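Possible regression after last week's pipeline update?

I re-ran a chain I had predicted before the update to compare outputs. Posting the input and the new output here so someone can diff against the archived version. Not blocking, just want to make sure nothing changed silently.
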Amino acid sequence: MLITLIALLTIGGLYFFISNLSPEILRANTQQKTDKALTLARDALLGYALQYREYQAGTGTDSVYGYLPMPDLGEAQNQNSALVNSPCPGEGCAKLNPAGLTTGHTYIGRFPWRTLGTEPLRDGNGECLWYIVSGGHRSLANAGTMNWDTLGQIDVVVAGGTSSDLASALATRPHDRPVAIIFAPGPPLTGQDRSASAVPGDIVSQCGGNYNPANYLDPSIAAVQGGASVYFPGNRSVDASVTPMAVAIQGSIEKDAANVLHGKCQRSANCTTVANDQGLAVTSDDLFGALRKSSSFRTDINAMLDRMTTCLRDQIAASGSLTPIPLTGFTPPTDKTVGRIPASTCYDSTQNPRGYFSHYSDQIFVAVQTVSPFNVTDTKNTPAAGDDTTASCPGVLLLASQRDSGQSRSTATERSTPANYLEGNNLAGFITTGALAFAGPSQFSQVSAIASATQTAGQDIVRCIPSGASLTVVAPAVATDAGSIALASYAPGTGVLTLGSAGDESSYGAVASALYACAWTPEIQAAGSGLRSFFRFRIRRVGEGFTFALIDGDRNGTNVCGAARQHLGYSGDNGNAATPYIQAPKLAIEFDTARQCNSPYINAAGRPACDFDEGGDTLRNGRNDPCYTSSCGGQSNDNSSHIAIVYWGYGAALTQPTQDDNVHDQADDFSSFTPDTPMPTDPSPRPGPRNPAPVLPYVTNPAVIPGIAPLDRMGVTDVSQREFHARVEVTRSFAEPVDAKDGTTAVQVQFWIEPHSAKRISAMSYNPGSAPTLTVTAAGHGLETGTAANPTYVVIRDAVPAGYNGEFVITKIDADRFTATLSAGTPNPGPYISSITWLNVDGTTDQATVYSANHGLSDGATVVIAGAVPTEFNGTHVITRIDNDTYRFGLELSAQPGSMEPAVAAPKALTPRQIALANTTRPMSVLDATFKPLVSHSATIYDERMEECASSGQACPTGQRCSPLPENRCYRPSFRNLRLGFTTAERPTTNNLTARGQLIEVTNRATTWLP
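New output (post-update):
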């Protein structure tokens, strides 16, 4: 009884308390709940924009950050359940299905709380939130440009109290128009029906009500407004691309007896509430203020600028100039060519970072010298540190960044006005004759107010476009019987690095020690916390192999290179003072396509041993190359090819350290049936990293990834299997020591590789017509006919005649044949040559036999062959007809050149894994966690011991630290600055032996440096 009495008294007390709360307190409580819900919703939207690129990457789509989700339109409109494996078919789900959408329309619906990972967010009146997203910022089916200048398509209107109309609050401020608005609809007004939806398929179990926006958002009904203009028409979508969609977000709007609208009426005015929506606007500044704080977004922007700078410098190196896109109505200065960056397949949206160019090209400007070069200063974002660097540059690349005070970019005229993008010296240099100075940070960074590291939102990002190509080739001229050759060349116009001599005969008579070459990036780069590099390579002809090398930029210039033959241009002293030895610290990924082994011994596994003999000829001794096949006795092509991580000679344990940099953990046991014994531990106090030793027998999917492994897909003779996508990730960390002599750098290297599918073409024929075609025979080509909107492209390469090479839309005939559509007017290239073989004939002229289906040639006819590899087959020849498909001609050679392989057909489209490998702005662990590296290794690199510490003044040069007495030495962190490049080598031919004139093409180079 007592308990009951207490309960009744408590309830009564609560009733008395609540009933006596003032209306102001109740309204404040309602407003607090509304404000909290709106803020949570805004943060969830910004979080979505910050992750949008990652969301899309999972669907195989390339897009940029910044897009916002579609609203929840109700499942009847969403149709999410129609999607395969749709993650969100219910209430609170953003529309994920593009069906029924109109491009560019601004959409209104409920806030997509489930998609954004929140609970159903409600205002203070218990109503679930609503949401409107601008047509230029919605994530689904949007073909527009997304950057910080993309205008919102929503206008905000307010009751001014001076007429029966609502007035635009942003009529003169287009950049302030919201990109999205989150609405708290408040209680229903006259004419609004919030009963449960009767639309089949709609689910309203959580929020209740229906999906008709006119029943929630105001003012939408003209009769209620008493003749005021209808600003919100009550539709789910509106084309607001020309006239922005006007909405009221101020909360209460009241109408007096004279039909004048007020934010708050006088008590005596007999007012009626006609709108009560409270909206929280999300502006472009809100959106990109959040994005600018994202390291992923900044990395993408910098990677885009890196690629553009590389491509533009190569274009200038190849042609001497480039032509920017001129600005309409702007008269450029007379001493330079200026404009926006031109389109190019080298850095368009298909390149890494994929999708960016089309969205940000209007923010990027270029100036190119016509007479004098520019002085371009990198301010490094550290004005107080005084570490600015200035370079003389033939061109400059400028990212305009976000708008600064007074800049507007809303009209075509404004977008053609340089002053609306550039500031200070950069504007003057862009528009003024005689002004040749540009300055600004080269890295797009987080906006900061720190005096020593300032980058404002509107700060111009300035990149020097350096003179010269993006690779400096070290390829000494080599005198041979057939003329002078060089083993490397770089074509800046195409971005193709070619390694090797291509033809066998070209190396006859060459001095063995001269057959090496390297190619390096002209500038060094701060190593920071590491890098991620990607490149594609194609081996048209197998030889010794090559390396991708990272070398110390403080100790090595662009003229360094290693020795010939098994040194692969990476290890060994070549003896040429003009091309000195590559000094450590360094590391490389070795692509060894010819196993060196001169040992007669057999190891315990029954395979030929390949012990390293330091006392042997440095151009002939082994590398301790592993044997991954059943028989590896010789040095023929594709003999147990492998990939390895290598460092440099293992210090005091070796007698020839400069010759041993790519030896795989040197072995010293020369007995015939015992396992190799590795070299003893380096006894020096600061040993260099030890090259990984082969692990035999190698298993296909080892639990522990070794530092050396077979590239078994290269262990075939089919050239169609020798195109690859390669990726290297190097993670670097420097431990700041108490004593400078104890400083070390930890380095982890991981390497991934993926083949690019291709098939040999056994036959091709030309079919005339208004749109000529080719009929191509390539067994098991694996291609399917595409659609008009999404055709299937194939790339044909290495064809003789070269007129068959190119990129074509195909139509499948059967599993082994397809047709390729040519451009109108394409001439007949002539009979296709599928292969050429050579035979040494004693006592008479040697013979080359050509296989060319239905060649149509007569005995004694003259043919011209061009583009063949080996190059010995090229030239003009008188033929002897054998049959309809073959003929031969005399070709006297002193060594076997090898056979010419057929052309190959490869799909242009890349697989998801190949696309992931090229995306160096993200680690592979994020892009494809299931893809294990082929090789991986970690090493410790000691700091470099330098000169004695100075007795007065600064003890050590900048960047070095002094170890005090008794050491009294300066130490420099290892791998502080890096230079990247490729190295290669060949072996000379000898009479009657197969030559090794390899041909390797490297393309699509890209590197992301990690700060």
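Follow-up from reviewer: compared with the archived run. The first strand starts at residue 106 and ends at 110. Marking as no regression found.
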